[in-house]
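Q: My labmate handed me this sequence with no annotations at all. I'd like to see what the chain might look like in three dimensions before we decide whether it's worth expressing. Could you predict it?
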Amino acid sequence: MSNRVIPCPECNSERFFRDGFRVLADGSRVQRYICRDCGYRFSDKSYKECLTKSNRQLCALQEAKKLDTQAETKTVCAGIGKLPQDARGLITKYMAYLEKEGYYNDSAYVDLLKSLVLHDGVNLLDPDDVKTKIARHKCKTGEPWKNATKMLATYAYDAFCKMEKIEWAPPHYKQEETVLTVADEKDLDCFIASSNKRMSAFYLCLKETFADPGEILRAEWTDLKDNILSINHPVKGHLPGYSELSPRLLCMLNNLSKTDKRIFPMSYVTARSYHGKLRKRLAKNLQNPSLLRIAFKDYRHFGGSMIAHLTNGNVLVVKKALRHKNIQNTMKYIHTIDFKTDDFEETTATTIEEIRALGKAGWSEYTVSHFNAVEIHYFRKPKRFGGLKC
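A: Here is what I predict for the chain of 390 residues:
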């Protein structure tokens, strides 16, 4: 461990490991580090650059037309330097426009337009070219964009057209209807048990609140009162609300550093990158390929399906728990799950206290028997929802 204290550029944590060296083009070596709390990787050089990152971004958000070529190259954010010269100023100006209009800082709009420019060579000032490239764009795997991504790219370019006062007829994409798959709780718990301190709390927060990851990443310490976490920054299509946290989660949150106003001071890209690496490692170590399909949204799907099952498909209860604005978004959770006999966990209770405890935990009584003058109550619960306290 280095003798000097280097706070993580992402979460300001002072706990990190040395992670080898990065060899530069001139042959010199730069020490690399990995944060023990958020998993962010950085080096001596990137850390020094991070100290002036906020100033550079501030400069980049000035009027792009007033910047000359040399100043623009120095002030653009990471990733823009790879763009063609004529697109740099437009993207920089677009970033300033999004901030001025109040768009979310971690919006994918900029990344989508940069992807179209870098991989397809699109001319941002030609709407017809943009529409063609959106329709034909392919991911790194060679698969075409899904309609949901094409819709988002269309919204991103629509904001660009408003900035440049360009008239265009946006294409119409309809999001594909997909079958809701519910992950097993034991698979979701693997990520909670195998992560670092900060990410374990993040995963458990997703599981207990049924919130979107963007909502949890925006949560601030002022939103946490006693054991109630208020969701004051909902994503599109969701309502604000609050969730009651378990003592376990409260203890995990209280052990996190409070150097930032946000509970989880990291970007969505950083969290997603950590999750992708973690699930590959878990799938390999546990020999469980199903872990490769686990995404952040699976925690919300698990919670919605669990509530739908325990309430016998009460759509209003599910809608309130998931904070949906449109009840049509709730209907996909109202489905019948056919559980086989071996898909249940079973237990028994003989006292009133045991019966009440099992009832609060979501167990269902299905029969009663008598043995030697003792009344035995039999309870069961689907294994998929076996460990979550309701």
